[in-house]
Amino acid sequence: MKRLARLLCSRRVAAVTAACVLLVTGALGLIAGQVEHDDDILAFLPEDNEDVAVFRRINERFGGLDVALVGIDAGEQLFTAPFLKRLRSATQALNELEKVSYALSIANLEDLTADLDRGGIELKTLIDTLPETPAETTALRNKVLSRDTARGNLVSEDGRAVLIYCFAGYGADPRGIAKQIRTVVQEHFPQEPTYWGGAPFISTYIYDTTDNDMARLTPWAVVAILVILMITFRDVIGTALALLTTGMGIAVAHGAMVLLDVKFNIVLSSMPIILFAVGSAYSIHILAHYYSLEPKLGPEQALVNTLEHLGPVVLAAGLTTVAGLLSFVMMDIGPMRTFGLFTALGILSTLLLSITFVPAVICLTGLRRKSSGRWTISSAMSSIAAAAQRERRWVGVALLACALVATMYAGRVDARMDHGSFFSPGSPPDRAERFLGEHFGGSQFIQVHAKGDLKDPLVLRELRRIADQLSLLPHVTDVLHIGDAIGVANEALEGMRRIPDTREKVGLLYGFVTGNRALAQLVDDERTEALLQIKENAPRADEVEPLLEQVERWVETQSIRNYIRARDEQGSPHGAAIAARRLELVLSRIKALAHEHNIPLDDSQQQRAGAILSQTRSKADAASISEGLERFLGSSECLVELPNDERGLVQRVATRLAELGPEPDESAILRTLESALEPGGLEPIELEDLAFSVTTPLRELWIQEKALALATTVIEEAELRIPSGPGGDRFVQRLATAAIDLGNEEALISAPTTGHRDEPGSSGDGTLHLRVNGLPVLHRGLSHSVTQNQFRSLGFALSLVLVLMIGFFRSVTAGCLATAPTAATLLVVFGGMGALDVHLDIGTSMLASIIIGAGVDYGVHLLAGWRSEHPSTGEPVSRGSLESAARNAAMNTAPAIWTNATMVAAGFFVLTLGEAKPLQNVGSLTATAMLIAAAATFIVVPVLARRDRYTGEYAIPRPEGDPKLE
User: Fold this and answer.
1) Residue 273's pLDDT is what?
2) How far apart are CA 391 and CA 668, in angstroms?
3) What is the pTM of this model?
4) Looking at the domain assignment, is residue 597 inside a domain?
């Protein structure tokens, strides 16, 4: 350092140094603006996390799970022609966007209905014509709200709000797609209140608010730092030099990112303020010490003495900050490693410039300033440090008590990561979340990924059982699955919302719904993979994670992974298991239906319902069967038209057929038709066709009526309180449909396994692999990653800083002493976080490393100035009092330490004035931590110090000729 000092005092060397620095940093500054931004919020997920890999594969497999949700508060106009026309146009325009895989609203929702003319199913849009009269508007409203696929999903229960789902294509840019969607919607609905939810809008909000905050607040942070520097130096050139050095460090970091093709992420947006606040400390220390020596020694000798004595101290302090930031490379989150690496590069550049470029400029300009006058802070800190050393036992006990309390509260700090971690209450995403939760049951989904034979009706019923059970969990508002879609199609075909009994019929129904793009989010084209979409409305991570654990626990313990297709036949060893499985399927359906319709169903009622279902053999009313047959015989579905010349013929035929009972054979049906019809009424071939035509409807009518009778018995005996109106009627009908499954001849039962449930070697007819995934799983993984990263980076930073300190002071004791104030600060800050219930997130996970890197700076400078002096001459003395050493060290270093602490605190405090929540958190906590670190330095070090001197060659002398500091 002596050689560097002498070298830089040469004007020629100084001029060359300054010119080279300006040339290099200027070139890097010119390209710094070319750095690209990375807006992918999923980039913050752990890279080697298996859940992340599965989510990305599912995302690609199902055409993109990033859903942008647009809620529109339409009010009473929702079902009017003008509004629906705009909604239809907006939905069409959204579907024409290149990166939108599919946009869905009630305007293009497909509706399955029975085709009465040709038979089968007719697929058409739910709103095929716009209403023209108030009566048509009311009829359309009733129609839409009667569809389960629309009500609560695409239109609110009260019919006043509508939701548009925009599924982003795989690999779509979130900010780009969000901007396009917003433009289209605002063009069509300029007056209506709109709410923007889902991952694309939330990530866009996070990045936009962060960018806007940094663009707006960075100048104010610089102004705050500038004011502090001006008050400190009272010199424009010195102040400008300190800021210029920091600006050069920023240019180096950004320019290096461009050269290395590294993208700028949300965390790096805080780098300029960090560099201005923290990186300027090194120039400040050099300039402050130079200014204190220059009046007595002159510019050249003052510069030499400053670099010789203070240069190593500044270098050691700067390297601790670099070490703290480099600790981010230990994290498994790419953007955090990038932040640590390039912010450390910026700090290192600023550090090197402070001991090269700053001295060169001083040499060339011969900087001078007016006397800085008296520093009250020096006197105050000197008294505090002396008192702490003098009463070190009592102060030590107080510090120990504070440490114990802080440790207790620090243990409560945990990581909570979800979208809410990135925005504040009352912000646009928060308002959107509350709107979507209130009107549509939430905006977030947990997915259960299923792999198996999804053409098998028994597998589809197992998926339905899983969905039914999961729908009962707290905060779950809906569960969408392919089994429900198949049931809707079957309802359109046969009038019963249930999964068919045969593989062939399931294949037929798949054919009817093929091409429905909304189903791409539920099942793949090969029918081997499916998703159960669990909609939940848990507002906070501490409620989402318990729900996620419940879902995972249920899937792991209650689902069938390896199964046998067992048939209920005479001599089957699985008879009891089949009966239990059928009952479980039906009871699960009943509990889910009761939950959906807000019908109380306690444990006692469930037990009574189960007993009735397992023991009662219901009897259907033949009169009801007759009425159903009458309707069939008079419809176009009947293959043979009965003669209409005889009054009451259809009724007589229907009555006679109903009297045959539930399972007549074809010959009995044929004889009954012959006797019921007048001789010669139909040709023999027509009689055979008629017998064939009525066989299936007759059997299904008996099944339906027996199920309805059983459902009625369950309602009566279990004392279920059924609400009046359409909702109650739907519940009764769905309960009856569920009861039909008690007659299924086949069921899936668990196969014996030889190892883990998902491992090969399990005997059986098939497997159903299930895995819970979705954004909540990723958020939990990120929370765990943040926690682990905190420990890894904290251990790395403390270890590296401690090694640096031991090497600098050439003493283990001194190295530990220099880091002690920072350790105390960490305890206090994290204890405060625990007491105030502040959680670790992306922003606060940066806190520890920043505190370590910047806070150790203060301990280094205090110890470097720690020495006993003769009270009259001011000369160092051996074996002087520790109180004198504490007083002198505080007197000489307090101005620089508090100037730096105030600058860092001011720079970070400005971040709290923005809208971005991560910046608010890290800003407030870092500002507080720096002030605590500065104060702790003047208390902890005097209490723990046991020597009157900790440095030899690099000791900071009292500035000669400096006015007495008070």
Assistant:
1) 81
2) 109
3) 0.80
4) no
